[in-house]
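Subject: two folds for Thursday's group meeting

Dear M.,

Sorry for the delay on this. The cluster queue was jammed most of the week, so I only got both jobs back this morning. I'm pasting them in the order they finished. Each block is the input sequence followed by the predicted C-alpha cells. Could you check whether the formatting survives your parser before we put anything on slides? The first protein is the one we discussed after the seminar.
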Amino acid sequence: MTRAGTRLFLTVVVAVVAAGGLVAQEARTPRSGSFYLSAETRRLQDDDFLNPGMFAVERGRELWRRAEGSAGKSCASCHEEASMRGVAARLPRYDAERRALVNLPLLINAMRVEHMGAPAYGYESDDMLALSAYVAHQSRGLPLRIEIDAGARPHFEAGKAYYFERRGQLNLACAQCHDDLAGAKLRGDTISQGQINGFPIYRLIWRSMASVHRMFEWCNTSLRAEPHAAGSPEYLALELYVAWRGNGLPIESPAVRR
C-alpha cells in the first residue's frame, strides 16, 4: 500500500470509530447527494441560471432536434419531448427485446444506430452527456421507480454483490463508505450515501459533466482498484442496484457535486 493509501485507510478507520451508530441510522433513510452539499453548492444546483450543467442540457436540446445519419432523422422525428418525462426515472431496466440490461446512454446509442442510421456516441463524450442530461432533465422532480423483474434479477444480484465486495489495495467496499459511514467526515468532505438520482452531474473538481460510470471508475481508482470500462456489464449491474437503492428519491439532473 502506498503512503497516501495508508493515510486514506487510517482516515476511514478513524471515521468508522468516531461515527459509531449515528451513521448506521443515517443509512436507513435514502438521501440524495444534494443533502450533503454545502449551502453554496446547493444554491448553485437549484438555480438554473447558475447551474453549469444547464449548458449541457441546452446542448442536448440542440442534439435532440438535429437530423443525422442515413435515415435523415432526429430524436424529435419520432419522440415528443413530453414523452421523455419519466424515462430516466425507470432506468436502468432489463430490455426483453435486446435481452440485456440497458441504461439511458445505451438506449440513446441504440436509437441512433437502429433508427437514425447514425454512429454511436462515445460513452463519456460531450454529446452523449449533453443528450443524456437533456433527456434526464425532462424527469426532474419525479421519483426513481426502479423495478427488478425476472430479467433484471441476475443483474441486480451481481450489482449488489459488487457493492458489498471489498476491492483494491485499500480493501474497501462501496457499502463501507456509503452505508456504514454516510454522514461522517472524510477529511474535509461529508460522505454521502452514493445515490445516483442526479446523474449526469456537473462535478466541480472535474469542471465537466460526468456519467455515473465515470464516478464508479473514480471510486475504484481511489480504492487503488482496477476500474472497469464505462458501459461494462459490471458497472451496469452496479448502476441497477444503486438506482434501486435510491427508489423514491427525485431526479435532480443536472445535479452539481463537489
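Second protein, same layout:
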Amino acid sequence: MKLVTFENCTGQSRIGAVTAGRRIIDLNSAYALYLRDVRDEGAFARLADAVVPPNMLALFEGGDTSLEAARTAFGHAQNEGDHVTGVHGEPVSYPPADVRLKVPIVPKKFFHTAGNFREHHEEATKAGFSHPVMPWIVFFQNVDAIIGHEEPVIYPKHLTEELDYELELAVVLKKGGKHFTPEEARKHVGGYVIFNDITARDIQRREMKSGVFSFCKGIDTFCPLGPWIVTADEIPDPHNLAMELRVNGESRQRSHSGKMSVKIPEILSHYSPMGYSAGDVVSTGTVSGVAAFSGDPKAWYLKPGDVMECEIEKIGVLRNRVISWEEAYGHKPEALATQESLK
C-alpha cells in the first residue's frame, strides 16, 4: 500500500491509501464499513478507531495488526466502488483533486544517517568539505522541520546563501525495540518514504569545525518527506531502487540504493541501543551530485522559484518548490539574527 495523510474537503486530517487510479481511500472509514457490513460488528466505529485510527503515527504504533486491518479495509473499499459511502454517510473514496496531501508521518524520532554512500563522501573529500566518516555518522533530525509533498521550502536568506538538496531513502519502523541484531531488523521495518535533506552548506561548514552538524539541516521546512509511505511488502529489496533528484527538470543526483556502503539491517541494528518507537524514521544517506560538490556550486545552489523533484523507484516523486522568506511571511526578516551574527 501507498499510505498517505490527507486533508479532506471539510478540513479534517485523515489517513488513506492510494489506488492504482490515484484515488484516496479513507482507511478508518473503510474499516468501519468493513466491520459493519462484513463482520457484523456492533461496535464498528469504536473498533475502527482503535485498530485503524485516523492518524499515521498511531497506525504504525498498532504494528502488523493495524497494517493488516488497513490492508483489509483498502481492499473492501475498492470492491465497493468509487462512490461508496461510510457508516456516517461520509465519502470513503476521494478523487485526488478533492484532497490535499500532507506529510505522511511525524515521528517521535528521526534518525539521520550521513556518509553512507561512499560516492557522496568521496566527492565531499575532493571538494575539501568533509571530515572522517567511519563508516557513517548518525544524528537526530528536527521533526518540527518536516513538510510534505508540494509544501514549500522557505529560503531563509538572512541565514544562508548556500541552500542545497540531498535525495535519500528513509525507513519507517512498525515496531519499537532496543539492542537487536541485523537479522532481527526486518521485522521492525514497516515501509519506505522519500526524504530530501535540505542543507545550508555555509552553516554546515562552520558547524563541521566542531565535528557536529545539526542546525544546518534542522531549520524550519528543511525536511521534505513523502509523498507517501510504501509498505515493506511492496519493496522486497530496498537495495535495488533507482534514485534521481531533479531541479527545474534538470537531473542533479542520479544513483542507486544498491550503492550503500552499510545496508539497512546493519544501520537499524547499530542505532538500536538508543531505542526505537513504532513510527520512527531512519534515513540512509544521500548520493553524489549535490550542488556544493559540483563544478559550479553557486550556479547549482537552490534559489526561490526552483522546483525539486525527488524520485525513487517503486515509491514515487516528492515535489517541493523553494520560496523566499518574503513570499512565505509577507515581510523581510528584520528582527531575526543576520548570518554575520552567527559566525
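Two things I noticed about the second structure. The radius of gyration is 21 Å. Residues 63-80 form the longest helix (18 residues).

Cheers,
T.
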